[in-house]
Design goal:
Blueprint lengths: L1 E7 L5 E7 L7 E5 L2 H22 L5 H5 L2 H10 L5 H12 L12 H12 L11 H21 L28 H12 L4 H14 L3 H5 L6 E2 L4 E4 L10 E4 L2 H13 L15 H14 L9 H13 L5 H8 L4 H7 L4 H6 L3
Helix pairs in contact: 3-4, 3-6, 4-6, 7-8, 8-10, 8-12
Length: about 350
């Protein structure tokens, strides 16, 4: 609560020290020259501190374990610094959690049940969540759990969010590539849309740059040097939060020039503004690939295909240079994405 202490100076004048101490919140103190200002400050500041304490702190750690996890996820999504891709995934996580589930109920058995439920629940793409998607969910829940506990000044002795309940081999990585006939089928499906020309440009950019979906969809014209033919992906759009240079091939440049004619805009306008955001891009692409007859193919698989093509056909670039271009920190990650087929390897024989 707030207290006001009156002090007399050597010259006989008085000052008023306001002190506010609320359990679970940082103490506040400030000195005023008149009592009216002191009382007004005490009244308003105490209310603010109590609100903050109610949101971010608790004198009793049991309050943390009594919170609904839905509420924890909502608060976590509003925290500054949380990546947009994490925020985009939170609704899917909440979909698989009962609204009244409390933090204290989230024990190992609960996580095991979450995994089982996720594997049989249809995602927005009308297919069951993959083990890799559920792994993303578990990581988000772990982050939110730890973040909220620390807001209560708690270091949990046990964190139940582990990957051991996922099916064996879930993290072996996808090997899905885009066959030539599938690419043509995609292009044909795109041609039937009113925005088909823009979609074909986006497809070309995805394959030629091997960029991530978010990097492409959020890209603005200011990121591209059309004269020297390169793209600087800003750290704000990059998964690892590091600026990344990408040289542009002739097909990529042609796609960008086509977009300039189709959707002209200023430096800060998005290149692919025809699609609102990464989430809607995924949904629209899922419909396109279904119409094209592609099975088990996602937008992210275009990145696998793009990286495979860089490794196969861009012989002028070293492995370290390709790592820099595609945003991988280790050769192992490049190897995981570059799924080279036997016929492609055989074709390189002298």
């Amino acid at each position: 609560m707030a207290s006001i202490i009156t002090r007399t100076r050597a010259d006989g004048t008085q000052t008023y020290l306001v002190q506010i101490r609320i359990p679970g919140a940082k103490s506040v103190s400030k000195t005023f020259l008149n009592s009216v200002d002191a009382h007004q400050f005490a009244l308003h500041e105490e209310a603010r501190v109590r609100r903050d304490a109610a949101v971010f702190h608790a004198p009793d750690p049991l309050r943390f374990y009594k919170e609904r996890f839905h509420d924890v996820l909502d608060l976590f999504a509003k925290e500054s610094g949380v990546p947009q891709r994490t925020i985009n995934n939170i609704p899917a996580v909440k979909k698989l959690i009962d609204r009244e589930t409390r933090v204290g109920e989230m024990r190992p058995r609960w996580v095991e049940d979450y995994v089982k439920k996720g594997l049989r629940t249809l995602s927005s793409h009308k297919v069951p969540y993959s083990a890799a998607s559920i792994a993303v969910h578990i990581n988000i829940m772990r982050q939110a759990f730890i973040w909220r506990a620390r807001r209560y000044d708690i270091e949990p002795t046990s964190i139940p969010f582990v990957m051991s309940y996922l099916p064996r081999g879930w993290d072996e990585g996808r090997t899905r590539r885009l066959a030539a006939h599938e690419e043509q089928a995609l292009i044909a499906a795109m041609s039937k849309r009113h925005d088909g020309a823009q979609w074909k440009c986006l497809l070309t950019m995805a394959l030629e740059t091997a960029a991530r979906q978010q990097e492409l969809v959020l890209a603005t014209w200011s990121e591209f040097n059309m004269k020297d033919e390169y793209w600087i992906i800003p750290k704000e759009h990059e998964k690892t939060r590091k600026e990344r240079p990408v040289p542009l091939t002739k097909p990529a440049m042609n796609a960008l020039r086509a977009m300039q004619l189709l959707c002209p805009g200023g430096p800060n306008d998005r290149v692919f503004a025809f699609t609102p955001n990464p989430a809607s891009t995924s949904c629209a692409f899922a419909k396109l690939k279904t119409k094209a007859g592609l099975v088990d193919f996602r937008f992210h698989d275009l990145r696998h295909e793009g990286i495979s093509r860089w490794v196969l056909y861009k012989r002028q670039y070293s492995l370290m240079e390709i790592m820099k271009i595609v945003g991988h920190s280790t050769p192992a990650m490049v190897a995981r994405y570059a799924n080279l087929r036997a016929d492609e390897l055989a074709a390189k024989m002298d």
